[in-house]
Q: What sequence folds into this?
């Protein structure tokens, strides 16, 4: 048996049943053993606490009630090397906004911490988190370009 998968670019990829079976068995083994993956990230990648995913959200235990959050800097060095048009080298005065929400039923609840214009891609929060509580966090880069 052969399965046909239509990709967005309209090219066709053929996957036979043996390959599909191996892939499904591998995924089931990983899920059953509790393995986690880095979750898909759009924008700046969190470095600590790390963003993990299994078949549901996996909350990462932090080393302190007052942790230092870390994330990838902007622009990424990898992107600078690929910037053929020279847009990214015009970026100046990068700062970061950090927000932390307390989780409610596995979703972001209410905002408990917010800092703007952080000069570095890390920040030790200035208040204690609650023990055994779950949180969501996000970071945004702000910058000037050509000015």
A:
């Amino acid at each position: 048996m052969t399965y046909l998968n239509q990709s967005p670019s309209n090219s066709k990829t053929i996957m036979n049943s043996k390959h599909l079976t191996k892939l499904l068995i591998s995924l089931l083994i990983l899920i059953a053993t509790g393995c986690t993956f880095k979750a898909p990230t759009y924008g700046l990648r969190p470095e600590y606490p790390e963003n993990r995913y299994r078949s549901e959200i996996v909350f990462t235990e932090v080393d302190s009630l007052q942790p230092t959050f870390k994330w990838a800097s902007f622009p990424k060095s990898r992107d600078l090397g690929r910037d053929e048009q020279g847009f990214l080298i015009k970026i100046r005065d990068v700062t970061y906004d950090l927000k932390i929400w307390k989780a409610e039923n596995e979703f972001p609840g209410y905002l408990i911490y917010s800092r703007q214009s952080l000069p570095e891609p890390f920040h030790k929060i200035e208040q204690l988190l609650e023990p055994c509580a779950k949180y969501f966090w996000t970071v945004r880069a702000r910058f000037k370009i050509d000015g």
Notes: Residues 1 and 56 are 32 Å apart (CA to CA). DSSP finds two helices and eleven strands in the chain. The chain has a mean pLDDT of 75. The first helix runs from residue 17 to 32.
